[in-house]
Structure formats: structure tokens, C-alpha cells
């Protein structure tokens, strides 16, 4: 089979900048998000590549760390470094010998929980930490540098947005292999991905004896994507302890499979809910876990709204993360039931965003944003209602409806 064409990633400028400024760069993200391909593409001619996932290589690194670093001197790429986290103090030792030499060590890892702990202890102040997620749609469309809709001077929106292919894209998800190879069997790919994830990442982070129960938990959580997280209800439905559910959620967060969205708190005199909302980070994974294999069924079925809301959030998170930013995104809901799906904190202002499955935006869809803007006054930026159609129009003063393609 011919190799898939390389698709440029939006994180490339941030990654190059980090390698020019820091002695080490740590690139994290879920398995198959393209970390290895990206580093070898950008630095393959300047850095030797070593995978620490291979048992013999890992054993050599652990048996004699200094000898291993002598054998593979900087500049070097160490892939899946969480398999040999004990190597990190010795990497620190080498960096401190040549502190003014940037880009010495490029490290990847698919497990934030283990990796970031090692970085914090060993490479604090010496390493830039970036995260690579599955592809945003702008990357897949060959427009990785496009600005976000709320930014001034943004690129003009793409005309003739493609709502007909939207749900096929959501069903496939954003993993680079599926984006670059549209003929791949998505059901087989996602099934293999979930199984590989369970066997490799989950067991290496936490000793989970019964993977069948964990997989049932994964499917139950997927069915609740975009809902308030209730660990007690999940535990009761699955017949496991609440602490077990909380531990499993921490595993999913550590491996960038889910995002927990926290409520936005402010002194506006209203009691806000405290539980987070849980989202699967890839719509393809979400659709696979809930058994959806047809784009029309995904759109028109009971999960349609949750899938669309998940897609909007994951697109925003990917776009910001791939710039090297740490996205500050929340949701807003009062005890009276007034809510806004997403509140993006950017440039000292709060951008309220609603995700609506309808292709026909109407003024009532802006009601939550209108209330939010009234409560937060000058802190609130103009809001957006992001929908599944292809029209752009104002819904009320300070609220505009835009297609998801504009993201």
C-alpha cells in the first residue's frame, strides 16, 4: 500500500519555536494523533530517532542510562519516553552540561499522567510541553493557519461549506490515518484503536484487571458525552465503586481521550452548578463506542445533538491547542436553567458559544448568550451560535450564527 500523503499540522510553528528556544521539547497527545510522523517530518534530518516502545531499546535505556545517552547523543528524538521515564533525570544531567543548546531532546508520550510527572520532577524550566490532538477540520482541509471566527482580521470564511459531508467527517473522526486515507474501513480502524488503547495505555497507567468492565464504562461514558458527569450514577449502572469510576475517568483524561469541562464561576449573584460536563475528544471514537456506523443515523438519531456539540468543542480545543495555547473553556448554567454551551476565555474577554444541530438558525437560539452578555457586561465578547447549516446571519445584537465550517 502506498504511503499516505503528509498533511501539514497547525502545531508546526509552535513546535519549531519551542525547539529553537528550549533544550527539550515534550510532545504529548493520544496514541495515533501523529506525534511521531510530525517530529520525523520536521526534524528527521537533524535528529536521530529512537523508539523507547521497543522492549530491547527500553531495557538498554533502563539498564545503563548514561551509556544509553552516550550511544544516542543529542540532538535526538526519544519516542514514547514514558516507557523509560527513569531516563529523564539523566537527560536533565546532559542538558545542564549544555544549557544554551536548544532542541537537544525531542520527547513524545501518549500518557500525560506519567510523562508530565517525570517532566515536572526532572525537566522543570528546561522543557516546553506541547500537545498534539487529532486533526482539526481546518487542518484536514489544508488550511491549518486560519484564524478563529471571533478573532479580528480572520480569514474570510470558506464559501460553499460542505454540510453534506459534515456527518461523514464526524463519523470518521480526526485521526490523521483516517483523514489521509479516506478509503480506510472506519469501523475496523476504530475497533482496533480502542482495543490497542485498552491493552497498552490503560494497563500501563493503572492495573485494571477486568478490561471488559472498563470497556463497558467507556461505552457508557460515550453515551453521556456532552452531559453533566455523575460518577455515582455511572458506578451504579455499571455495578462498580464510585472511586473506581473516578480512577477510570482520570485515566481517560491522562490519555487525552476525554475532556472535562468545568462550569464558569463569577460573582453575578446566581448559583451555578458545580459538576463538570464530560466530552469524548474525537467524534469518530464517540460514534464507534455508541455503535453508530451510518452518517444519517448519527445526525438524526438521539445522539445527534451531543455528537454535534462534541464536534464544536473538540474543534475549538484542537485549534487553540495546536497553537501551543492552553485552552480556557468552560460552560455556564444557572440554577434557573439558563445556559451557554461554551465560554472561551481569550484576551481578557469571555466569548459565549452555543452549538445547535439545526441547519436553520433562529433568534431564540441566542437567548442563553443574550442572558450571559447581560450578566457579564463589558467582559462578554460578541457571541456565536454554531450550527450545522451553511448560512451566516445576525440573530440578535451581539450574537451571530455561523456554520461549523467557519471553525
Summarize the structure in words:
The protein has two domains: 12-131, 3-Layer(aba) Sandwich (Rossmann fold); 137-406, no CATH class. Helix 3 (55-63) packs across helix 4 and helix 5 (88-97) runs parallel beside helix 6. The chain has a nine-stranded mixed sheet, sandwiched between helices. Strands 2-3-4-1-5 form a five-stranded parallel sheet, with helices on both faces. It starts with 11 loop residues before the first helix and ends with a strand. The protein is globular. It contains 17 helices and 14 strands. The protein has helices spanning 12-21, 35-43, 55-63, 65-71, 88-97, 112-122, 137-140, 163-172, 176-180, 186-205, 211-223, 231-238, 242-254, 283-289, 295-300, 304-321, 367-376; strands at 24-28, 48-51, 76-79, 105-109, 127-131, 227-228, 258-263, 277-280, 329-333, 339-346, 349-356, 383-387, 393-396, 399-403. With 407 residues, it is an alpha/beta fold.
Could you give the order of strands across the largest sheet? 6-8-7-9-10-11-12-14-13
Biggest pleated-sheet summary: 9 strands, mixed
Overall mean pLDDT stands at: 88
Residue ranges: pLDDT <50 for 5 or more in a row? 159-164
Radius of gyration based on Cα positions: 22 Å
| Class based on secondary structure composition and strand pairing | alpha/beta
The helix content, as a percent range, equals 40-55%
Helical element count?
17
Note the overall shape. Answer: globular
The total domain count is: 2
What distance separates the N and C termini? Answer: 33 Å
The tally of strands reads: 14
What share of residues are in beta strands?
Answer: 15-25%
Amino acid at each position: 500500500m502506498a504511503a499516505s500523503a503528509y498533511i501539514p499540522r497547525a502545531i508546526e510553528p509552535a513546535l519549531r519555536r519551542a525547539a529553537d528556544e528550549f533544550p527539550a521539547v515534550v510532545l504529548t497527545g493520544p496514541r495515533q494523533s501523529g506525534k511521531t510522523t510530525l517530529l520525523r517530518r520536521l526534524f528527521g534530518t537533524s535528529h536521530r530517532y529512537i523508539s523507547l516502545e521497543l522492549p530491547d531499546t527500553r531495557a538498554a535505556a533502563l539498564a545503563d542510562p548514561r551509556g544509553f545517552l552516550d550511544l544516542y547523543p543529542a540532538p535526538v528524538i526519544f519516542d514514547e519516553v514514558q516507557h523509560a521515564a527513569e531516563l529523564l533525570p539523566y537527560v536533565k544531567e546532559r542538558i545542564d552540561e549544555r544549557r544554551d543548546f536548544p532542541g537537544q531532546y525531542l520527547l513524545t508520550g501518549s500518557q500525560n499522567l506519567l510523562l508530565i510527572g517525570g517532566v515536572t520532577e526532572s525537566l522543570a524550566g528546561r522543557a516546553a510541553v506541547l500537545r498534539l490532538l487529532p486533526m482539526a477540520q481546518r487542518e484536514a482541509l489544508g488550511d491549518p493557519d486560519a484564524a478563529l471566527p471571533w478573532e479580528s482580521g480572520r480569514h474570510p470564511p470558506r464559501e460553499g461549506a460542505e454540510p453534506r459531508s459534515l456527518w461523514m467527517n464526524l463519523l470518521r473522526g480526526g485521526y490523521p490515518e483516517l483523514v489521509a486515507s479516506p478509503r480506510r474501513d472506519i469501523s475496523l480502524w476504530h475497533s482496533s484503536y480502542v482495543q490497542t488503547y485498552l491493552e497498552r495505555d490503560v494497563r500501563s497507567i493503572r492495573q485494571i484487571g477486568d478490561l471488559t468492565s472498563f470497556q463497558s464504562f467507556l461505552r457508557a461514558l460515550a453515551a453521556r458525552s456532552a452531559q453533566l458527569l455523575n460518577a455515582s450514577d455511572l458506578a451504579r449502572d455499571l455495578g462498580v465503586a464510585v472511586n473506581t469510576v473516578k480512577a477510570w475517568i482520570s485515566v481517560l483524561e491522562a490519555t487525552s481521550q476525554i475532556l472535562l469541562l468545568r462550569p464558569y464561576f463569577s460573582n453575578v449573584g446566581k448559583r451555578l452548578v458545580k459538576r463538570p460536563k464530560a466530552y469524548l475528544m474525537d467524534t469518530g471514537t464517540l460514534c464507534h463506542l455508541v455503535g453508530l456506523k451510518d452518517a444519517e443515523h448519527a445526525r438524526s438519531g438521539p445522539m445527534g445533538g451531543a455528537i454535534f456539540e462534541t464536534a464544536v468543542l473538540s474543534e475549538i480545543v484542537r485549534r487553540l491547542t495546536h497553537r501551543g495555547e492552553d485552552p480556557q473553556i468552560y460552560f455556564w448554567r444557572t440554577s434557573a436553567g439558563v445556559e451557554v454551551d461554551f465560554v472561551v476565555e481569550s484576551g481578557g474577554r469571555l466569548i459565549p458559544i452555543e452549538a445547535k444541530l439545526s441547519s436553520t438558525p433562529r433568534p431564540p437560539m441566542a437567548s442563553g448568550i443574550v442572558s450571559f452578555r447581560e450578566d457579564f457586561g463589558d467582559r462578554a465578547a460578541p457571541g456565536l451560535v454554531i450550527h450545522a447549516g451553511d448560512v451566516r446571519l445576525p440573530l440578535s445584537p451581539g450574537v451571530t450564527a455561523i456554520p461549523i465550517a467557519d471553525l
